[in-house]
Design goal:
heterodimer, A: about 240 residues, mainly alpha, MetI-like fold, 9 helices, B: about 260 residues, 11 helices, transmembrane (chain A), transmembrane helix (chain A), transmembrane transporter activity (chain A), transport (chain A), MetI-like_sf (chain A)
Chain lengths: ~240, ~260
Protein backbone atom coordinates (compact mmCIF):
# COMPACT_ATOMS: atom_id res chain seq x y z
CA UNK A 1 0.00 0.00 0.00
CA UNK A 2 1.30 3.39 -0.99
CA UNK A 3 0.27 6.70 0.50
CA UNK A 4 -2.65 8.01 -1.48
CA UNK A 5 -2.64 11.83 -1.35
CA UNK A 6 -5.84 12.06 -3.36
CA UNK A 7 -7.69 10.06 -0.72
CA UNK A 8 -6.44 12.36 2.03
CA UNK A 9 -8.23 15.15 0.23
CA UNK A 10 -11.37 13.05 -0.28
CA UNK A 11 -11.41 12.11 3.39
CA UNK A 12 -10.72 15.70 4.37
CA UNK A 13 -13.73 16.96 2.42
CA UNK A 14 -15.97 14.27 3.88
CA UNK A 15 -14.75 14.98 7.40
CA UNK A 16 -15.61 18.65 7.03
CA UNK A 17 -19.30 17.71 7.17
CA UNK A 18 -19.03 16.44 10.76
CA UNK A 19 -17.01 19.33 12.18
CA UNK A 20 -20.26 20.88 13.53
CA UNK A 21 -20.86 17.77 15.67
CA UNK A 22 -17.37 17.97 17.16
CA UNK A 23 -17.75 21.70 17.75
CA UNK A 24 -21.20 21.19 19.30
CA UNK A 25 -19.86 18.62 21.76
CA UNK A 26 -16.95 20.89 22.61
CA UNK A 27 -19.02 24.05 22.97
CA UNK A 28 -21.78 22.48 25.06
CA UNK A 29 -19.38 20.70 27.40
CA UNK A 30 -17.20 23.78 27.86
CA UNK A 31 -20.11 26.20 28.39
CA UNK A 32 -22.00 23.82 30.67
CA UNK A 33 -18.79 22.98 32.47
CA UNK A 34 -17.99 26.65 32.90
CA UNK A 35 -21.36 27.41 34.50
CA UNK A 36 -21.29 24.41 36.84
CA UNK A 37 -17.59 24.95 37.48
CA UNK A 38 -18.21 28.57 38.53
CA UNK A 39 -20.82 27.36 41.00
CA UNK A 40 -18.40 24.78 42.39
CA UNK A 41 -15.60 27.33 42.60
CA UNK A 42 -17.80 29.79 44.50
CA UNK A 43 -18.92 27.03 46.90
CA UNK A 44 -15.29 26.28 47.65
CA UNK A 45 -14.13 29.90 47.84
CA UNK A 46 -16.89 30.82 50.27
CA UNK A 47 -16.22 27.60 52.20
CA UNK A 48 -19.92 26.71 52.37
CA UNK A 49 -20.12 23.99 55.00
CA UNK A 50 -20.70 20.41 53.74
CA UNK A 51 -21.25 21.55 50.14
CA UNK A 52 -17.68 22.76 49.73
CA UNK A 53 -16.33 19.41 50.96
CA UNK A 54 -18.61 17.57 48.56
CA UNK A 55 -17.48 19.87 45.77
CA UNK A 56 -13.82 19.26 46.59
CA UNK A 57 -14.37 15.50 46.58
CA UNK A 58 -16.24 15.69 43.28
CA UNK A 59 -13.46 17.69 41.64
CA UNK A 60 -10.73 15.38 42.93
CA UNK A 61 -12.56 12.27 41.80
CA UNK A 62 -13.42 13.53 38.33
CA UNK A 63 -9.91 14.85 37.78
CA UNK A 64 -8.45 11.58 39.02
CA UNK A 65 -10.27 9.32 36.57
CA UNK A 66 -10.01 9.14 32.78
CA UNK A 67 -12.60 10.96 30.71
CA UNK A 68 -13.60 7.73 29.01
CA UNK A 69 -14.73 6.17 32.29
CA UNK A 70 -17.09 9.11 32.84
CA UNK A 71 -18.51 8.66 29.38
CA UNK A 72 -18.97 4.90 29.71
CA UNK A 73 -20.42 5.16 33.23
CA UNK A 74 -22.96 7.73 32.07
CA UNK A 75 -23.73 5.78 28.93
CA UNK A 76 -24.39 2.52 30.74
CA UNK A 77 -25.51 3.82 34.14
CA UNK A 78 -27.80 6.72 33.33
CA UNK A 79 -30.41 4.74 31.32
CA UNK A 80 -31.09 2.50 34.34
CA UNK A 81 -31.61 5.54 36.57
CA UNK A 82 -33.78 7.32 33.99
CA UNK A 83 -35.92 4.22 33.46
CA UNK A 84 -36.35 3.64 37.17
CA UNK A 85 -37.36 7.25 37.77
CA UNK A 86 -39.77 7.45 34.85
CA UNK A 87 -41.31 4.13 35.86
CA UNK A 88 -41.90 5.28 39.41
CA UNK A 89 -43.45 8.47 38.04
CA UNK A 90 -45.68 6.41 35.78
CA UNK A 91 -44.35 8.18 32.68
CA UNK A 92 -44.01 6.33 29.42
CA UNK A 93 -40.59 7.89 28.74
CA UNK A 94 -37.86 5.31 28.29
CA UNK A 95 -34.10 5.74 28.02
CA UNK A 96 -34.09 4.15 24.55
CA UNK A 97 -35.38 7.41 23.12
CA UNK A 98 -32.41 9.41 24.43
CA UNK A 99 -30.02 10.10 21.53
CA UNK A 100 -26.42 8.91 21.86
CA UNK A 101 -25.21 12.46 21.56
CA UNK A 102 -26.97 13.41 24.80
CA UNK A 103 -24.92 10.90 26.78
CA UNK A 104 -21.71 12.32 25.34
CA UNK A 105 -22.82 15.87 26.13
CA UNK A 106 -23.75 15.01 29.72
CA UNK A 107 -20.59 13.03 30.39
CA UNK A 108 -18.25 15.65 28.90
CA UNK A 109 -20.03 18.45 30.75
CA UNK A 110 -19.35 16.59 33.99
CA UNK A 111 -15.69 16.17 33.03
CA UNK A 112 -15.37 19.80 32.00
CA UNK A 113 -17.10 21.11 35.12
CA UNK A 114 -14.40 19.65 37.38
CA UNK A 115 -11.54 21.08 35.33
CA UNK A 116 -13.34 24.39 34.82
CA UNK A 117 -13.97 24.83 38.53
CA UNK A 118 -10.22 24.76 39.09
CA UNK A 119 -9.68 27.27 36.27
CA UNK A 120 -12.30 29.62 37.69
CA UNK A 121 -11.03 29.18 41.25
CA UNK A 122 -7.46 30.01 40.31
CA UNK A 123 -8.69 32.98 38.28
CA UNK A 124 -10.68 34.37 41.21
CA UNK A 125 -7.77 33.82 43.58
CA UNK A 126 -5.50 35.72 41.22
CA UNK A 127 -7.53 38.90 41.65
CA UNK A 128 -5.95 41.20 44.18
CA UNK A 129 -8.10 41.42 47.30
CA UNK A 130 -7.60 45.18 47.34
CA UNK A 131 -9.94 45.28 44.34
CA UNK A 132 -12.76 43.79 46.38
CA UNK A 133 -11.99 46.04 49.33
CA UNK A 134 -12.08 49.08 47.07
CA UNK A 135 -15.42 47.94 45.65
CA UNK A 136 -16.83 47.58 49.17
CA UNK A 137 -15.44 50.95 50.18
CA UNK A 138 -17.45 52.74 47.48
CA UNK A 139 -20.58 50.95 48.68
CA UNK A 140 -20.99 48.02 46.32
CA UNK A 141 -22.73 44.91 47.57
CA UNK A 142 -20.93 41.56 47.30
CA UNK A 143 -22.81 40.42 44.16
CA UNK A 144 -22.15 43.81 42.55
CA UNK A 145 -18.48 43.71 43.45
CA UNK A 146 -18.13 40.17 42.17
CA UNK A 147 -19.94 40.85 38.93
CA UNK A 148 -18.47 44.24 38.07
CA UNK A 149 -14.99 44.10 39.57
CA UNK A 150 -13.81 40.59 40.37
CA UNK A 151 -15.25 38.47 37.55
CA UNK A 152 -13.93 40.57 34.63
CA UNK A 153 -10.42 40.55 36.07
CA UNK A 154 -10.61 36.88 36.95
CA UNK A 155 -11.70 36.13 33.40
CA UNK A 156 -8.67 37.97 32.03
CA UNK A 157 -6.37 36.12 34.40
CA UNK A 158 -7.78 32.70 33.56
CA UNK A 159 -8.02 33.14 29.81
CA UNK A 160 -4.91 31.02 29.02
CA UNK A 161 -6.27 28.22 31.22
CA UNK A 162 -9.67 28.55 29.60
CA UNK A 163 -8.27 28.16 26.11
CA UNK A 164 -6.23 25.15 27.28
CA UNK A 165 -9.40 23.56 28.68
CA UNK A 166 -11.25 24.33 25.48
CA UNK A 167 -8.52 22.59 23.45
CA UNK A 168 -8.53 19.71 25.93
CA UNK A 169 -12.26 19.23 25.49
CA UNK A 170 -11.95 19.54 21.71
CA UNK A 171 -9.45 16.69 21.75
CA UNK A 172 -11.54 14.80 24.29
CA UNK A 173 -14.57 14.92 22.01
CA UNK A 174 -12.90 12.20 19.90
CA UNK A 175 -13.90 9.76 22.65
CA UNK A 176 -17.54 10.16 21.68
CA UNK A 177 -16.99 7.59 18.93
CA UNK A 178 -17.08 4.89 21.63
CA UNK A 179 -20.80 5.60 22.15
CA UNK A 180 -21.57 5.70 18.42
CA UNK A 181 -21.65 9.47 18.00
CA UNK A 182 -20.42 10.30 14.53
CA UNK A 183 -17.88 13.07 15.04
CA UNK A 184 -14.57 13.52 13.22
CA UNK A 185 -12.89 10.43 14.66
CA UNK A 186 -15.83 8.12 13.95
CA UNK A 187 -16.31 9.63 10.51
CA UNK A 188 -12.65 8.97 9.70
CA UNK A 189 -13.17 5.31 10.56
CA UNK A 190 -16.32 5.17 8.45
CA UNK A 191 -14.66 6.86 5.48
CA UNK A 192 -11.69 4.51 5.66
CA UNK A 193 -13.73 1.36 6.12
CA UNK A 194 -14.76 1.43 2.46
CA UNK A 195 -11.23 1.11 1.08
CA UNK A 196 -9.06 0.32 4.13
CA UNK A 197 -7.01 3.51 3.80
CA UNK A 198 -7.02 4.24 7.52
CA UNK A 199 -3.77 6.14 7.58
CA UNK A 200 -4.96 8.71 5.03
CA UNK A 201 -8.26 9.17 6.84
CA UNK A 202 -6.63 9.68 10.24
CA UNK A 203 -4.12 12.05 8.67
CA UNK A 204 -6.99 14.15 7.36
CA UNK A 205 -8.63 14.05 10.81
CA UNK A 206 -5.35 15.05 12.45
CA UNK A 207 -4.99 17.99 10.05
CA UNK A 208 -8.49 19.20 10.91
CA UNK A 209 -7.84 18.99 14.64
CA UNK A 210 -4.49 20.67 14.24
CA UNK A 211 -6.11 23.50 12.31
CA UNK A 212 -8.88 23.93 14.84
CA UNK A 213 -6.37 23.95 17.70
CA UNK A 214 -4.16 26.56 16.07
CA UNK A 215 -7.28 28.63 15.36
CA UNK A 216 -8.35 28.50 19.00
CA UNK A 217 -4.84 29.42 20.14
CA UNK A 218 -4.74 32.41 17.79
CA UNK A 219 -8.19 33.58 18.86
CA UNK A 220 -7.28 33.21 22.52
CA UNK A 221 -4.14 35.28 22.17
CA UNK A 222 -6.13 37.96 20.30
CA UNK A 223 -8.77 38.08 23.03
CA UNK A 224 -6.09 38.03 25.69
CA UNK A 225 -4.43 41.07 24.20
CA UNK A 226 -7.76 42.84 23.92
CA UNK A 227 -8.92 41.94 27.42
CA UNK A 228 -5.67 43.00 29.07
CA UNK A 229 -5.72 46.44 27.49
CA UNK A 230 -6.64 48.04 30.82
CA UNK A 231 -3.40 46.67 32.24
CA UNK A 232 -1.21 48.49 29.74
CA UNK A 233 1.06 51.39 30.55
CA UNK A 234 1.13 53.19 33.87
CA UNK A 235 3.76 52.69 36.50
CA UNK A 236 2.95 49.22 37.80
CA UNK B 1 -31.04 -0.97 30.21
CA UNK B 2 -28.24 -2.88 28.54
CA UNK B 3 -26.62 -5.73 30.41
CA UNK B 4 -27.36 -7.50 33.65
CA UNK B 5 -29.00 -6.13 36.80
CA UNK B 6 -26.84 -3.95 39.03
CA UNK B 7 -25.07 -5.94 41.71
CA UNK B 8 -22.52 -4.22 43.91
CA UNK B 9 -20.77 -7.52 44.63
CA UNK B 10 -19.34 -7.46 41.11
CA UNK B 11 -17.47 -4.24 41.84
CA UNK B 12 -15.47 -5.99 44.55
CA UNK B 13 -15.24 -9.14 42.52
CA UNK B 14 -13.65 -7.26 39.62
CA UNK B 15 -11.08 -5.30 41.61
CA UNK B 16 -8.49 -8.10 41.70
CA UNK B 17 -9.22 -9.01 38.08
CA UNK B 18 -8.62 -5.46 36.90
CA UNK B 19 -5.63 -5.04 39.20
CA UNK B 20 -3.97 -7.99 37.48
CA UNK B 21 -3.45 -5.75 34.43
CA UNK B 22 -2.35 -2.74 36.44
CA UNK B 23 1.25 -3.74 35.76
CA UNK B 24 0.81 -3.25 32.03
CA UNK B 25 -0.83 0.15 32.49
CA UNK B 26 2.01 1.30 34.72
CA UNK B 27 4.57 -0.14 32.28
CA UNK B 28 3.09 1.97 29.50
CA UNK B 29 3.13 5.05 31.73
CA UNK B 30 6.71 4.43 32.91
CA UNK B 31 8.21 3.83 29.49
CA UNK B 32 6.26 6.68 27.93
CA UNK B 33 7.47 9.18 30.50
CA UNK B 34 11.05 7.87 30.33
CA UNK B 35 11.22 7.96 26.54
CA UNK B 36 9.18 11.16 26.55
CA UNK B 37 11.83 12.84 28.70
CA UNK B 38 14.40 11.84 26.07
CA UNK B 39 12.27 13.25 23.24
CA UNK B 40 11.49 16.29 25.36
CA UNK B 41 15.15 17.10 25.88
CA UNK B 42 15.98 16.55 22.23
CA UNK B 43 13.20 18.91 21.25
CA UNK B 44 13.70 21.52 23.97
CA UNK B 45 17.45 22.01 23.51
CA UNK B 46 17.30 23.45 19.96
CA UNK B 47 14.75 25.96 21.15
CA UNK B 48 16.68 26.82 24.30
CA UNK B 49 19.93 27.33 22.41
CA UNK B 50 18.14 28.82 19.38
CA UNK B 51 19.60 26.43 16.80
CA UNK B 52 18.48 27.83 13.42
CA UNK B 53 16.56 25.15 11.46
CA UNK B 54 16.11 22.58 14.22
CA UNK B 55 14.30 25.21 16.26
CA UNK B 56 11.63 25.41 13.59
CA UNK B 57 11.36 21.62 13.37
CA UNK B 58 10.82 21.22 17.09
CA UNK B 59 8.24 24.00 17.02
CA UNK B 60 6.22 22.11 14.43
CA UNK B 61 6.65 18.83 16.35
CA UNK B 62 5.35 20.37 19.56
CA UNK B 63 2.52 22.13 17.79
CA UNK B 64 1.40 18.93 16.06
CA UNK B 65 1.50 16.66 19.08
CA UNK B 66 -0.21 19.21 21.28
CA UNK B 67 -2.65 20.17 18.55
CA UNK B 68 -4.13 16.77 17.76
CA UNK B 69 -6.00 14.34 20.01
CA UNK B 70 -3.99 11.45 21.43
CA UNK B 71 -6.56 9.01 20.07
CA UNK B 72 -5.87 10.10 16.50
CA UNK B 73 -2.11 9.99 17.11
CA UNK B 74 -2.45 6.40 18.30
CA UNK B 75 -4.15 5.33 15.09
CA UNK B 76 -1.92 7.50 12.93
CA UNK B 77 1.27 5.91 14.21
CA UNK B 78 -0.20 2.41 14.34
CA UNK B 79 -1.24 2.56 10.70
CA UNK B 80 1.36 4.97 9.39
CA UNK B 81 4.67 3.92 10.88
CA UNK B 82 4.77 0.42 9.32
CA UNK B 83 4.17 2.00 5.90
CA UNK B 84 6.88 4.54 6.53
CA UNK B 85 9.33 1.85 7.61
CA UNK B 86 8.47 -0.23 4.55
CA UNK B 87 10.13 2.48 2.50
CA UNK B 88 13.44 1.67 4.19
CA UNK B 89 12.67 -2.07 3.89
CA UNK B 90 12.15 -2.63 7.59
CA UNK B 91 9.41 -5.12 8.34
CA UNK B 92 7.52 -4.37 11.54
CA UNK B 93 4.44 -6.50 10.99
CA UNK B 94 5.47 -8.78 13.82
CA UNK B 95 6.19 -5.97 16.27
CA UNK B 96 3.77 -6.08 19.21
CA UNK B 97 1.12 -3.35 19.35
CA UNK B 98 2.49 -2.30 22.71
CA UNK B 99 5.58 -0.85 21.01
CA UNK B 100 3.45 1.46 18.86
CA UNK B 101 1.37 2.44 21.86
CA UNK B 102 4.41 3.29 23.98
CA UNK B 103 5.96 5.17 21.08
CA UNK B 104 2.83 7.26 20.58
CA UNK B 105 2.48 8.09 24.26
CA UNK B 106 6.14 9.00 24.53
CA UNK B 107 5.98 11.25 21.46
CA UNK B 108 2.84 12.84 22.90
CA UNK B 109 4.36 13.25 26.35
CA UNK B 110 7.62 14.42 24.75
CA UNK B 111 5.89 17.45 23.25
CA UNK B 112 4.48 18.49 26.62
CA UNK B 113 7.70 17.61 28.44
CA UNK B 114 9.76 19.75 26.07
CA UNK B 115 7.56 22.73 26.92
CA UNK B 116 7.95 21.90 30.60
CA UNK B 117 11.74 21.68 30.30
CA UNK B 118 11.85 24.94 28.37
CA UNK B 119 9.73 26.75 30.94
CA UNK B 120 11.68 25.26 33.84
CA UNK B 121 15.08 26.17 32.44
CA UNK B 122 14.00 29.70 31.55
CA UNK B 123 12.61 30.12 35.05
CA UNK B 124 16.01 29.54 36.64
CA UNK B 125 17.57 32.85 37.53
CA UNK B 126 20.11 34.03 34.99
CA UNK B 127 22.51 34.96 37.79
CA UNK B 128 22.80 31.28 38.69
CA UNK B 129 24.45 30.50 35.36
CA UNK B 130 26.66 33.55 35.61
CA UNK B 131 27.71 32.55 39.11
CA UNK B 132 28.50 29.05 37.86
CA UNK B 133 30.66 30.48 35.09
CA UNK B 134 32.40 32.78 37.56
CA UNK B 135 33.57 29.82 39.65
CA UNK B 136 35.00 28.28 36.49
CA UNK B 137 32.37 25.75 35.41
CA UNK B 138 32.04 24.89 31.75
CA UNK B 139 28.74 25.42 29.94
CA UNK B 140 27.85 21.75 30.26
CA UNK B 141 28.75 21.63 33.95
CA UNK B 142 26.71 24.74 34.67
CA UNK B 143 23.72 23.25 32.89
CA UNK B 144 23.88 19.83 34.53
CA UNK B 145 24.92 20.83 38.04
CA UNK B 146 23.24 24.17 38.53
CA UNK B 147 20.41 24.79 36.09
CA UNK B 148 18.94 21.32 35.77
CA UNK B 149 18.36 20.54 39.47
CA UNK B 150 16.69 23.89 39.98
CA UNK B 151 14.66 23.59 36.81
CA UNK B 152 13.53 20.15 37.93
CA UNK B 153 12.32 21.46 41.27
CA UNK B 154 10.47 24.31 39.57
CA UNK B 155 8.78 22.12 37.00
CA UNK B 156 7.88 19.25 39.30
CA UNK B 157 4.20 20.24 39.63
CA UNK B 158 3.88 20.30 35.83
CA UNK B 159 5.67 16.97 35.64
CA UNK B 160 3.30 15.46 38.19
CA UNK B 161 0.30 16.65 36.18
CA UNK B 162 1.79 15.15 33.05
CA UNK B 163 2.43 11.76 34.62
CA UNK B 164 -1.15 11.65 35.89
CA UNK B 165 -2.48 12.78 32.52
CA UNK B 166 -0.48 10.03 30.81
CA UNK B 167 -1.87 7.49 33.26
CA UNK B 168 -5.38 8.53 32.33
CA UNK B 169 -4.55 8.63 28.62
CA UNK B 170 -3.41 4.99 28.72
CA UNK B 171 -7.10 4.13 29.04
CA UNK B 172 -7.26 4.75 25.28
CA UNK B 173 -4.74 2.05 24.41
CA UNK B 174 -7.55 -0.50 24.44
CA UNK B 175 -8.74 0.94 21.12
CA UNK B 176 -5.71 -0.71 19.49
CA UNK B 177 -6.36 -3.94 21.37
CA UNK B 178 -3.82 -3.61 24.17
CA UNK B 179 -4.94 -5.50 27.25
CA UNK B 180 -4.38 -2.82 29.86
CA UNK B 181 -6.95 -2.02 32.54
CA UNK B 182 -9.62 -0.54 30.29
CA UNK B 183 -9.12 -3.34 27.77
CA UNK B 184 -9.45 -5.87 30.55
CA UNK B 185 -12.63 -4.12 31.69
CA UNK B 186 -14.07 -4.48 28.19
CA UNK B 187 -13.40 -8.22 28.14
CA UNK B 188 -14.89 -8.67 31.61
CA UNK B 189 -17.99 -6.92 30.33
CA UNK B 190 -18.35 -9.10 27.26
CA UNK B 191 -18.28 -12.08 29.59
CA UNK B 192 -20.71 -10.87 32.24
CA UNK B 193 -22.62 -7.86 30.81
CA UNK B 194 -22.09 -6.02 34.11
CA UNK B 195 -21.25 -2.64 32.54
CA UNK B 196 -21.71 -0.20 35.38
CA UNK B 197 -20.07 -2.32 38.08
CA UNK B 198 -16.98 -2.87 35.96
CA UNK B 199 -16.58 0.78 35.09
CA UNK B 200 -17.06 1.81 38.73
CA UNK B 201 -14.27 -0.57 39.75
CA UNK B 202 -12.14 0.76 36.90
CA UNK B 203 -12.74 4.40 37.84
CA UNK B 204 -11.94 3.73 41.49
CA UNK B 205 -8.63 2.08 40.61
CA UNK B 206 -7.60 4.97 38.34
CA UNK B 207 -8.62 7.41 41.03
CA UNK B 208 -6.62 5.71 43.78
CA UNK B 209 -3.49 5.57 41.64
CA UNK B 210 -3.66 9.17 40.51
CA UNK B 211 -4.43 10.29 44.05
CA UNK B 212 -1.44 8.36 45.36
CA UNK B 213 0.80 9.77 42.61
CA UNK B 214 -0.34 13.28 43.46
CA UNK B 215 0.56 12.82 47.13
CA UNK B 216 3.96 11.31 46.31
CA UNK B 217 4.82 14.19 44.00
CA UNK B 218 3.69 16.69 46.63
CA UNK B 219 6.08 15.14 49.15
CA UNK B 220 8.88 15.16 46.59
CA UNK B 221 8.19 18.78 45.76
CA UNK B 222 8.38 19.79 49.41
CA UNK B 223 11.64 17.95 49.74
CA UNK B 224 13.13 19.56 46.63
CA UNK B 225 12.06 23.07 47.52
CA UNK B 226 13.33 22.84 51.09
CA UNK B 227 16.19 25.22 50.39
CA UNK B 228 13.77 27.76 49.00
CA UNK B 229 11.32 27.67 51.86
CA UNK B 230 13.79 28.06 54.66
CA UNK B 231 14.92 31.30 53.12
CA UNK B 232 11.45 32.72 52.71
CA UNK B 233 10.42 31.59 56.17
CA UNK B 234 13.14 33.61 57.79
CA UNK B 235 12.06 36.55 55.65
CA UNK B 236 15.49 37.07 54.11
CA UNK B 237 14.25 37.38 50.59
CA UNK B 238 12.92 40.74 49.63
CA UNK B 239 9.50 41.17 48.13
CA UNK B 240 8.50 37.54 47.98
CA UNK B 241 5.35 37.61 49.96
CA UNK B 242 2.18 35.75 49.22
CA UNK B 243 -0.13 37.87 47.18
CA UNK B 244 -3.13 38.90 49.22
CA UNK B 245 -5.83 36.47 48.22
CA UNK B 246 -9.47 36.90 47.47
CA UNK B 247 -10.23 33.70 49.30
CA UNK B 248 -8.95 35.05 52.59
CA UNK B 249 -10.95 38.21 52.23
CA UNK B 250 -14.11 36.39 51.22
CA UNK B 251 -13.80 34.07 54.18
CA UNK B 252 -13.19 37.01 56.48
CA UNK B 253 -16.20 38.99 55.30
CA UNK B 254 -18.31 35.85 55.51
CA UNK B 255 -17.16 35.38 59.10
CA UNK B 256 -17.83 39.04 59.88
CA UNK B 257 -21.35 38.85 58.50
CA UNK B 258 -21.95 35.67 60.43
CA UNK B 259 -20.84 37.38 63.63
CA UNK B 260 -23.06 40.35 62.88
CA UNK B 261 -26.14 38.22 62.30
CA UNK B 262 -25.48 36.34 65.50
CA UNK B 263 -25.19 39.56 67.48
Amino acid sequence: MKLDPAFIWTAFVQLLSVIPTTLLITAVSVLGGFLIGTGIALLRLYRVPVLSQIAAGYVTFIRGTPMITHLLLIYFGLPAIVDAVSESLGSSFRSVSIPYLAFALIAFTITASAYMSEVVRSGLLAVNRGQLEAAYSIGMTTPQALRRIVFPQALAASLPNLSNSLIGMLHGSTLAFTVSVVEIMAKAQIVASTNWKFFEAYLAAALIFWGLTVLIEQLASRIERRINVYNRGGVA
Amino acid sequence: MPGAKFDIAYVFDYFPKLLSTLGLTLTIVGWSILLGLGFGFLVALPRLYKVPILQRVSQVYVSFFRGTPILIQLFLIYYGLPELLKLVHADVTRTPVLVFVVLTYSLHAGAYLSEMIRAGVTAVDRGQVEAAYSVGMSGFQAFVRIVLPQAFAISLPVFANLVIATLKDTSLAFSLGVMEMTGKAQTLITLSQHFVETYIALAVIYFVISFALEKVFLLLERRLLKHDRRETDSGKRFGWRRAPSLRGLLAKTARAQEGRSRA
